[in-house]
Write a structure and sequence with these properties.
The protein is built from nine helices and no strands. Helix 1 crosses helix 4, helix 4 runs antiparallel to helix 5 and helix 5 runs antiparallel to helix 9. It is elongated, with a radius of gyration of 18 Å.
Length: about 190
Amino acid sequence: MRPQKVAHRDIMEGLLQVLRAKGYDGASLSDLAKASGLKKASLYHRFPGGKQEMTTAVLGYVGEWVDANILDVLLEEKKTTTERLELALANIDELYNRGKSICIFRALTTHTGLELFGQQIQAGMEKYVDAFTQLGTELQMDPMEARKEALQTLIDIQGGLIVSKGLQQEHIFEQTLKGIRERYYR
């Protein structure tokens, strides 16, 4: 039987939604197949390494989007620092659906997720901090201060997502992004 034809983006988005909602341990093959638009056999045909390979692919997919739409934007020299920060924050807002979506890193920081994907998660977070650090130094911050602010930015985003979701008040994430903006413009 030939594998079903489903667009790669649709498969990745479906898998991402399940992993965000249920984490690695909670995501069943049935959940992943249903969300991807593929039958289990077709899903295994595409990802012979099973759920671990699917999750690795999703991390790569999200990582490519983050690189292109957030990190590369922060580092783009053709735009002003203000333009870069504004666009990066708008894209962060989009990535997390205005605070409604959970970060895939957070969803995978359970015991099994960290064991299997800890290096990818750490590398992704370090790239994030590095890009915001560079922006801070371009805004004339001392390199150590820029690193501290970049780390705080990552903490604020992750914490803002959790609190916004936990209190079911999406405006909290919007306030978080506003606070980040103000911190870099001071």
